[in-house]
Request: fold
Amino acid sequence: MDAMISPYATGDNATASSVMSEQHQFQLFEESLRKVNILVFQMLINEIIPLSMGLEKKLERANNDELSDKLSKMEVTEGEESLSTVVPTYNTKDIIPSNELIHELSELKDEDKYNKVIDRVRNIGYQVGNKLSELLIFTNNPNLQFKEMDLLLIMKFICRDVWKQLYGKQIDNLKTNHRGTFYLIDYDYQPIREFCIEENALKKELKLVEPFLEFPVGIIKGVLASLGYSKEQVICLATFIDRPNNDIPDTTFAKGISFHVQITTQNNQ
Amino acid sequence: MSRQQSINSNQTGASTITAQSPLNRSLRTTGEEIWKRSERINAELFTLTYGAIVSQLCTDYGRNFVQINEELFQMGYNIGVRLIEDFLARTALPRCSDLQETSEVISKCAFKIFLNISPKVINWSNNKDAFSLLIEDNPLSDFVELPMDAMDQLWYSNVLCGVLKGALEMVQLDCDISFVSDILRGDQQTELRIKLNKILKDEIPIGED
Reply:
């Protein structure tokens, strides 16, 4: 039986060199995975915000229409058969540009409505986070061991692996009080890197950018949920913070982001 | 596969063989080189993010797939009008002389640079004002399976039509763009149709001469 051990066998008594080759193999594996241009991904995730706002507007209008529809239900809608054969043409004149939607969102007075939009963004993030941890865990990443994973290790996993996967960089700073409170600080949060806002930016301008911090809030909650900390146990808030020193070029966004994560655990500390 | 296709399409326009083939080769290399230089991201992450967006739309619209198609198209349009700037900046390509050249640029450069695929250009209309892109290995719909009720109505990757619509409109091409078939719906292939309506006039922005 012992003679059967091949050089590729990885057992519990893996040597240092085999760990090395595991790392190397993992790297090769990562590189071999199918890729797309990072730009299209960035544009897609940033588009989630105007999309969510546009949706809110349309749903509201639909609700209003429904009321008036009940009064005059005479119009005949297209039959299902024709739908699949008729070539749909969309009037691009009706499309509201993304920047207008973002402005509209920042100027929303109705808090209820604003929250609905933000919830939608978070929810998309949540779904992505939920699946993302699966994606990362099942790639045989040798950095990950979930056997005795405590909360701190999970947060490190988010800071390192999740962030790297999403934004090509790690979280810059992780602070914790070891009692369920964490601060994840990103001084160069990638989705808004190109947003040109000066350091002494007005509140109004920052308000425009705020919704862009909500997607990762959803991601964090989604990853935690997939690893046993349910939505209800986790509070996550994102805020702007000043950068410690101004060694970062002026061309990038002038503020860092702090993600405050609060986790309530019922039994264990 | 796609190389063979480009040869075929050249042969149909017999007189343009000599003029087209070096161009095609250089478009291919341009596309490949820019792709190699670009920063990339795991395609699976891209797929699942798009999936999460579509599923959110399904929740919000209560599975009204016609409306979801439109929403995806509009989202794509808003991406396309901005993506074209990046595309022109990266490739520095000159204006296309005809739609045939445009089709090659879309397939060999645009799709290559952004999604790392080169759809075949097929089914040219007789008067050369419409063609189809045969999309294989669509990164948006990797591992995606549609539920039965969505199969007849949802164009899952409709965002692509919107992106093309927006991008082409920015370079003065007014086109109708839609999916003809999709593997996700049980079709044999995923075919996206592009039909040129008219070439828009260059508009000079107000206040500039």
Summary: DSSP finds eight helices and five strands in chain A. The beta strands of chain A are 35-37, 173-176, 181-186, 234-241, 256-263. The first helix of chain A runs from residue 16 to 32.
